[in-house]
Specification:
The chain is of the alpha/beta class and 234 residues long. The protein has one domain: Class I glutamine amidotransferase (GATase) domain (Rossmann fold), CATH 3.40.50.880. It has helices at 17-24, 64-79, 88-96, 120-125, 179-188, 203-206, 210-229; strands spanning 4-8, 29-33, 49-52, 83-86, 101-116, 132-143, 150-155, 158-165, 168-171. Strands 2-1-3-4-9-8-7-5-6 form a nine-stranded mixed beta sheet. It starts with a strand and ends in a 5-residue tail after the last helix.
Length: 234
């Protein structure tokens, strides 16, 4: 089996729990560290699928590697290569396929609920999950739906939290989190937590009941990742 290509854009936002899932299923992957100057492949031919992680930058920033990843995503979609995006990664996929990425009305940071979008398509994909559950967030922008995409999840302050199209899954929220990642982000990105807001949790608040919250999140991730990984063998 060809490896998955996982694109990391900043050192602290790696594949996290996804790497554990892949290892448990004996699925090979190659970590492409953009933050360390790794080149973006011109073609997806060597990969069984593409995964794009998060990062503090915007997809609208004039960065060479962003343009290269957008071009790669476009080529992969034309070839039917499965793709998965987390936060910035989901925004990259959305933009490459014709959607837009704009400022959200508020920042969403910490443990906040999402709910299933009404509809048969979302019900089918998310049948194993409750209609409403908490996930981890850290974003100030949002994506729109590319043509043909089916909305899956939404939150009170962000209408598009996840969408699917064929073998593509784009997430605005973070389901890859592990305990140590939550702690690290709370420390590294602490400047973003200085302004109190209903949708921005303090570092202390987001670390309360952390093992319990991460365990629940990983049950959600198991469903989403399982659905997406099934496309690799089709």
């Amino acid at each position: 089996m060809k490896p998955l290509y996982i694109f990391r854009h900043v050192a602290c936002e790696g594949p996290g729990y996804l790497a554990d899932v892949l290892t448990g299923r004996d699925i090979p992957y190659r970590l492409i560290c953009i933050d360390q100057g790794a080149a973006v492949p011109e073609s997806p031919e060597g990969a069984s699928g593409l995964v794009f992680m998060g990062g503090p930058m915007s997809v609208n920033d004039p960065l060479t590697w962003i343009e290269e990843e957008l071009a790669l995503i476009h080529r992969a979609a034309q070839s039917g290569v499965p793709m998965l995006g987390h936060c910035l990664g989901g925004q990259l996929i959305s933009k490459a396929l014709g959607g837009t990425v704009t400022a959200n009305a508020v920042k969403e940071i910490g443990w906040l609920p999402v709910e299933r979008v009404p509809g048969a398509e979302a019900d089918a994909v998310l049948a194993e999950l409750p209609e409403r559950f908490d996930v981890y967030h850290w974003h100030g922008e949002r994506f729109s739906l590319p043509e043909g995409a089916v909305p899956l999840l939404r939150s009170e302050h962000c209408e598009r939290q996840a969408w699917a199209k064929d073998s593509i899954l784009a997430l605005q929220c973070h389901v890859e989190m592990k305990d140590d990642m939550v702690r690290e982000w709370a420390a590294l990105y602490r400047d973003e937590l200085e302004t109190a807001a209903p949708t921005v949790q303090s570092a202390k608040a987001m670390q309360e009941r952390l093992p319990e919250r991460v365990t629940a999140l990983q049950r959600v991730a198991d469903v989403l990742y399982g659905r997406w990984l099934a496309h690799l063998t089709r």
